[in-house]
C-alpha cells in the first residue's frame, strides 16, 4: 500500500514539474508580450542616452515589441541604476550600464550604495567605448602631450585643469595621467561640462579631458587644440589625433563604456534571446557608423568576455579613485 501511494506521489510530482516546465517555456516563447523599458540614468540628449535610443529602436524591430528608453537621472547615474537594480527580473526592465555608476561610485561613496553592480546585474551586450580627448585652448604654448610635459617643467609654471565634477571620469582620467607622467596640476571641479569648456576657452584653466561630444564642437570651431586621446587606439571619428600611448605614456588606456544589462535573476531564456539580438544589431554597419558619428567606438566583446568585465573594471577604477583622493570618507 505504501509503495502504491509513494508511486502515485512521485507521479503527481513529476506531472507538476513537467507542467511547470511547459508553462515556463510557453511564457518565454511569448516574451515580450508588452513594452520593454531600458532605464538610462542620465539626461536625454547625451551620448549614452542617444546610443541607448539607437539600441532601443533596433531591438523594437527585432522583438516586434516596443522598447522604450526611460531616463531616471541624478547623483551621477546612481539614482537610475539603483532603481533598475530593484525592478522585477522578468525581462521587461533593462538598464544602461556605464563606468561611473557601475564601477566608480562604490569607491567614491563606500558603503552607501543600495546596489552591487556585479551582484545585481547580468550583462546582456556590449555597446560602445567612450574615449576622451585631452585638449588645451587654441593659444596654449603646447600642441602635443610631450610639449605639455616640457612646458610644465618651466620655472614658475603652475598647471590647472578642470572637470565636470570630483570623481567623474574626466577628473579621474587626468588624475591618472598626472600620476603616471609625474606632473603636478591643480584640479578645478565644475558642475557639468558646459562651464568647464567655457573656462578652458577663456583661459581660466589650462586643460581638460572629456568625451568627444563635449570637445568636438570646440575643435571644429578652432577654439581648442587636441593633445591626444586617452584610449589605446585612435578614435575613428578623429583619426588624426594621436593617442597618449603613441606619445610616450606607456600602457595608458582609460575610457568610459556603455553596456546593456538586465537585473540579476532575469530568466536565462530572455537573456539568451537578448544577447543573440544584440550580437546581430551590433554587427549592423548603420549601428556602428552611428556610434562612430557620436564619438563612440563600437565595443567588441563576447558574452564570455563580458562575464568578468565588471569585476575587472571595478578593481581598476578602485585604484584610480584611491590615487586621485576623490573618495568621500
TrEMBL record:
Stored Pfam families: TctC
CDD domains reported in the protein's UniProt record: PBP2_Bug_TTT (cd07012)
Leader peptide range in chain numbering: 1-29
Record-linked InterPro entries: BUG, Bug_dom1
Transmembrane segments: none
Keywords attached to this entry: Signal
Top-rank taxon: Bacteria
PANTHER family xrefs: BLR1237 PROTEIN (PTHR42928:SF5), TRICARBOXYLATE-BINDING PROTEIN (PTHR42928)
Family (UniProt): Belongs to the UPF0065 (bug) family.
Protein name: Uncharacterized protein
